[in-house]
Write a structure and sequence with these properties.
heterodimer; A: mainly alpha; two-stranded antiparallel sheet; 13 helices; B: 525 residues; alpha+beta; 21 strands
């Protein structure tokens, strides 16, 4: 187990390293960040001084070397736009994204899996067909458009919910979160529903496909012959057998949503990290881009690690590599 | 869930949402496309930064809504020698911490800029300052490097902070509020990058007391989200209404719209160097000469632009035909230009005379979504020029790609927006059209290789002249010459739209597009 985890961590270090090289070369290929940021009124002398001050006149390998040396000392750098440490900047916005994504994933899983089970259990029924039609809508209609519809319906026309932004932050078990206040919930509902629709569609289809296949398996027949109730058959045996792909997709979706919830964040003006990273790309704010992507890589590695451990719990046949 | 409990849940939500709406008439919530990058007023020249920080800090010299100078923390200013300006400081001005403003604070603020400013360097406003001398508590002498007649214009972005904060504080202390001490109408409450800027009225303000006790400036960069926030009543006012929403809003009795010219003008920049970075093709063959060097070709391009159509059709009415690089009334705007003519026959004749009667193929690069309408104007121009028999390959690129490539001078024919933010000619003509000269600090943004000795001579004469009227005349003459020579070809002045809940607010739109809470009043006031 420990060997397995260590091996994973080694891999992630390699990925982080490769990724930081790609970002450096990419930004270098686009051009000089100073030319994007600089004020039109600046003279040539001011421009040259700035380029020198940010070390952008040095060869690329040297800039990269300086960066790696600083990271080794625990310094990810300061944002060129905001002039605050990159870590402070990212962590000031991460809680907002976390709570949005967790609520969205909760909605997607808690609704999607039961609906998928039902649709797979009674595949010919009208309700099952309605659920499948809904799931197709869920992942084929663009997120920003549904977001706009939700805003027009619930915020502009009905006036029930706010059209965007994050609610007041309260404290829950010592963690500052807007989910601790009623107003916070009124702000999070629309964006979370918006964000969850795609994932819910995915969950429904995955679960249904697994159900349809599993219900024909011999162990279901034996379980029924044994006299187990349908509920016991479905939740005791079938669900456990079909949960590996569900957990895999859950993990992947959790990671990608955390990193790239940017469409929903823009439409609902949610102050999360997604908007921050898009802006930093548009302004070629290299320190923020690099640090954020490094963080995303680590996040993905961690989530996959947890998913693998969950596999082993769900299915005793799965053995983690590195375990003797 | 039964129907009744669902209904109860919805009702509960409605109540919670209702509580979130700004209800008190003393509060103003504004939805803005962009906000500041920092609370340190000396960090960046970004327009939305100055706009936000104007609430907390005052500038030495003020500007009215047409960018004309007016007294602010300095009550008067005059040159007392060829390289010395005297500024008289307003007496009885209080900082938010209760201390009084003196000349030392002004000196400190000027000297602090080079120490702390970032990549959008504010040193462009202090570049002509040699040294600052405090004469008494309310008099400052600024010694300049050479003659600097436009120093007061540079100082419209010179925010004054108290000397007591010391040279060591930076963005963190300002963002946290401990150093955010100004003399402005509002005091700082809180701010997060890309989040809300919360302000509270400062009761000891030296100027007119603003109406609103509490102001929230909320950053909502997404156009659709900003419009939705207004329509759902979450904010009282928004800026930068997109053209498509403007049309629907005009038919919506629940909303008011405000429209005004901006300082931003879309200019076409033809490269006149001997060799073009993207070569022109005739009958599919690249040619070595540069047709844009010929004034007749540049004039033909100009004459083929139908500016009325650009405004009416392409920009949905949200623009004004431009005749020169600055809007009317700015220092150095020349009345001699008159409206630019649209004359296809004359354009064809000139092109023929220049030896390009069969046309040529040229690449045309523009910014995309940097300012409203840039990419659509780009495509429209390509079509207009195709009527001359030219093949124009228009391409609108994101600013992240466009600006670095433009700085490397990779485009033969380009278009981007330029705003004369200081309200006078030397800023614009000196950067864009003067011959590139690093020693004089001129022509830094001259990417076309344009060089006109007659214009340069007049411009430099003006730059040295401390007499306002004489200088104005020289600038007018210089801009006339360079506009006739089509060094750059201005197309349209962009307009900006604000929108508010109907019948609630009044304000005068400003050409610099700033949305200032203390200039906004309720209708029933």
């Amino acid at each position: 187990m420990i060997a397995f985890i260590l091996q994973r961590l080694m891999q992630s270090v390699l990925v982080v390293f490769a990724m930081s090289v790609i970002v450096f070369v990419g930004v270098y290929a686009i051009g000089n960040p100073i030319d994007v940021l600089i004020d039109p009124g600046a003279t040539q002398a001011i421009r040259d001084a700035l380029i020198e001050r940010y070390g952008l006149d040095q060869p690329l390998w040297q800039q990269y070397f300086t960066f790696v040396t600083n990271v080794a000392q625990g310094d990810l750098g300061r944002s060129m736009v905001y002039n605050v440490p990159v870590t402070t900047l990212i962590f000031s916005r991460l809680p907002a994204t976390l709570e949005l994504v967790l609520v969205a994933m909760a909605i997607a899983t808690l609704l999607g899996v039961p609906l998928g089970i039902w649709a797979g259990y009674k595949p010919e029924s009208f309700s099952a067909k309605a659920i499948m039609a809904f799931s197709i809508l869920g992942f084929s209609v663009p997120t920003f458009w549904i977001g706009m519809l939700l805003i027009m319906g619930f915020a502009v026309n009905l006036g029930w919910l706010p059209s965007g932004g994050r609610g007041p932050v309260g404290e829950f078990l010592g963690v500052p979160t807007s989910l601790a206040t009623a107003q916070g919930w009124s702000h999070v509902i629309l964006p979370a529903v918006n964000l969850s629709l795609f994932k819910m569609g995915l969950m429904i289809r995955l679960t249904r496909a697994g159900m349809v296949e599993a219900m024909r398996a011999d162990y279901v027949k034996f379980a029924r012959a044994q006299g187990l109730s349908e509920l016991e058959v479905v939740f005791g045996h079938v669900l456990r057998n079909i949960s590996i792909p569900i957990v895999t997709v859950f993990g992947l979706e959790l990671g990608s949503t955390l990193a790239f919830a940017v469409v929903t964040e823009s439409v609902f003006n949610w102050p999360g990290v997604g908007k921050l990273i898009i802006d930093s790309i548009l302004q070629l704010d290299r320190p923020v881009m690099v640090s954020y992507l490094v963080m995303v890589v680590i996040l993905f590695v961690l989530i996959n690690l947890i998913v693998d451990i969950v596999y082993a719990r769900l299915d005793p046949r799965v053995r983690l590599k590195g375990e003797e | 869930m039964t129907f009744h409990s669902l209904r109860a849940g919805v009702a509960a939500l409605a109540i919670m949402a209702g509580a979130a709406l700004p209800a008190v008439a003393q509060d103003l919530t504004i939805g803005l496309r962009a906000g500041p990058d920092s609370i340190d007023p000396h960090w960046s020249t970004l327009g939305s930064q100055a706009e936000a920080l104007r609430h907390i800090f005052d500038t030495l010299v003020g500007v009215d809504e047409n960018l004309q100078l007016e007294p602010a923390l300095a009550t008067s200013w005059e040159p007392i020698g060829p390289t010395t300006w005297e500024f008289k400081i307003r007496e009885g001005v209080k900082f938010h911490d209760g201390t009084e403003l003196t000349a030392e604070d002004v000196k400190f603020s000027i000297e602090r800029i080079p120490e702390v400013t970032g990549p959008m360097s504010m040193t462009i406003y202090t570049k002509s300052v040699e040294s600052v001398e405090v004469i008494d508590d309310y008099t400052v002498h600024v010694h300049t490097i050479g003659t600097a007649p436009s120093l007061p214009n540079d100082f419209i972005r010179l925010f004054v902070v108290p000397a007591s904060i010391g040279m060591d504080v930076g963005n963190e202390e300002f963002n946290a509020g401990s150093a955010a001490i100004g003399t402005g109408p509002y005091r700082f409450v809180s701010w997060q990058p890309q989040g809300d800027l919360v302000l509270e009225r400062f009761d000891d303000y030296w100027g007119e007391q603003p109406h609103w006790e509490r102001v929230v400036r909320r950053e909502i960069p997404d156009d659709a989200a900003r419009v939705a926030a207004l329509r759902s009543g979450q904010v009282d006012l928004i800026n930068y209404v997109p053209a498509s929403d403007y049309l629907t809003m005009q038919n919506n009795p629940a909303l008011d719209t405000f429209v005004a010219d901006s300082v931003y003008i879309l200019n076409v920049a033809p490269v006149v160097r001997d060799e073009l970075p993207q070569k022109v093709r005739v009958n599919g063959q690249e040619i070595d000469e540069n047709p844009l060097q010929d004034l007749r070709v540049r004039t033909a391009l100009d004459l083929a632009i139908d500016r009325e159509t650009l405004v009416r059709v392409v920009l949905e009415g949200l623009g004004t035909p431009a005749t020169q690089l600055m809007p009317e009334g700015f220092f150095g705007y020349t009345d001699r230009m008159g409206a630019r003519e649209y004359n296809l026959d004359e354009a064809r004749r000139l092109l023929d005379e220049a030896g390009y009667g069969d046309g040529f193929e040229i690449d045309f690069t523009c910014t995309n979504n940097r300012v409203p309408g840039d990419s659509v104007v780009c495509e429209a121009l390509a079509q207009m020029w195709s009527r001359l028999g030219l093949t124009v390959n228009a391409q609108a690129l994101n600013g992240t790609v466009f600006f670095p490539a433009a700085a490397r001078e990779e485009y033969s024919l380009a278009m981007s927006a330029w705003g004369t933010l200081t309200g006078e000619a030397s800023y614009t003509y000196g950067s864009l059209l003067h011959t590139k000269d690093a020693d004089l600090g001129l022509g830094a943004f001259n990417r076309t290789g344009y060089s006109n000795a007659e214009f340069d001579a007049l411009f430099q004469q003006a730059r040295e002249n401390l007499d306002d009227d004489a200088r104005r005349e020289l600038y007018e003459e210089a801009s006339y010459i360079v506009m006739q020579d089509r060094g750059l070809i201005p197309t349209v002045i962009l307009q900006t739209v604000w929108a508010s809940q109907a019948g609630t607010l009044t304000f005068t739109p400003r050409v610099d597009q700033e949305t200032l809470a203390y200039k906004i009043t309720p209708v029933n006031d």
